[in-house]
Amino acid sequence: MLSIKNLHAQVEDKEILKGINLEVKAGEVHAIMGPNGAGKSTLSSVIAGKEEYEVTAGEIELEGEDISELEADERAHKGVFMSFQYPVEIPGVSVTNFIKTAINESRKAQGKEEMPAKDMLKKIREKSELLEIDRKFLSRSLNEGFSGGEKKRNEIFQMAMLEPKLAILDETDSGLDIDALRIVANGVNKLKAKDNAVVVITHYQRLLDYIVPDYVHVLHDGKIVKTGDASLALKLEEQGYDWIKQEVEG
Fold first, then answer.
1. What's the rounded Cα separation, in Å, for the pair 89 and 26?
2. Could you report the per-residue pLDDT of 91-125, keeping only the tens digit for each?
3. Which of 47, 150, 175, 223 is the most core-located residue (most Cβ within 10 A)?
4. What are residue 202's phi and psi, to 5 degrees?
5. Model pTM?
6. Exposed, middle or buried by CB within 10 Å (0-12, 13-18, 19+), for 232?
7. CA-CA distance, 28 to 133, in Å (whole number)?
8. Rg, C-alpha atoms of the chain
9. CB neighbour list of residue 152: distance below 8 Å, 6 or more residues apart
10. What are the backbone angles phi and psi of residue 160, rounded to the nearest 5°?
């Protein structure tokens, strides 16, 4: 699904990613953890195609196709979805209108007709029920006046509607109370399928109590320095990251 080889990236001439190698297969959930400044959010932004990051070496492939030269919207049309740590507010654009536009733009890019209105409504109803979203919520302006939990739930709702091949959740757990965390994680788990993949970028192990990863990768100083299963996240929770630094630098 996703193959990253020797990825180097910089922002404003400062190298942040220093040779990332990562393979994510369909049906898998990968967690990326690491201390502040390790490059976690940079990695997610580079995969999604945010333009302020410059890729200086390496390649990013989605289902065998090199996407490293594509714009962010082109990557989205190919099936890359990123849930932001801090979603922006868009006054005057309702959640429903936003999602309709996003779906139909993607369909257009793939040479398909717009989704018929009744199919769209049916899908909105199904996915909002799945994620326990109040229908009133859907008529509100996108993220305007939303609590942290509502913003994150809305991001997962967009993911449910767009059905991406690769979903990247960038610190989705930041600022969430336990109830919101559970609802967001529950949504992700329900959307997991054998033909899509999820990359969860997180600082804390607590999210991984709810979204159990197949693999946990530790990022340190722009490189993946350790990979393990879910037990690695528990060890990081108990012992912090100092032992990783000692292993790498020692």
1. 32
2. 888 989 999 999 999 899 889 999 999 999 999 99
3. 47
4. -145, 155
5. 0.87
6. buried
7. 26
8. 18
9. 83, 87, 172, 176, 180, 184
10. -65, -40
